[in-house]
Structure formats: C-alpha cells, structure tokens
Write a structure and sequence with these properties.
- The protein is mainly alpha-helical.
- It has two helices and no strands.
- The longest helix has 41 residues.
- The termini are far apart.
Length: 58
C-alpha cells in the first residue's frame, strides 16, 4: 500500500499524473455513457418483445 501511495504522490508532481487523471475522468464519462446506452437499448428491446408477444395469437 505504501508503494501505491508513493507512486500516486510522484504522479501528482509530474505532468504524467495530470494526463492520467484526465484520461481516467474521460474513461469514467465514456463508461457512464455506455452503461446508459445499454440500459436504454435493453428497455427498448424489452418493449418490442412485449409488443410482439401481445400481437401473437394465443
């Protein structure tokens, strides 16, 4: 754990650390967008299956 803290402190001092944080934030935004898209598409597909099931004769 101490080694991880030393690396984090070193990154804060260097410009590479700032770039790493920017990429991490960007990755987080992309991840949230992908999850939201999957949820929306899943909801749409579920609705389509429900409509198809209702349209089929029993």
């Amino acid at each position: 754990m101490r080694k991880v803290m030393e690396i984090a402190k070193r990154f804060r001092r260097e410009e590479d650390g700032a770039a790493m944080i920017e990429y991490t934030v960007l990755l987080g935004i992309i991840t949230v967008a992908v999850i939201a898209t999957i949820i929306l598409v899943g909801t749409w597909v579920s609705g389509e299956w429900t409509d198809l099931e209702a349209a089929l004769p029993a």
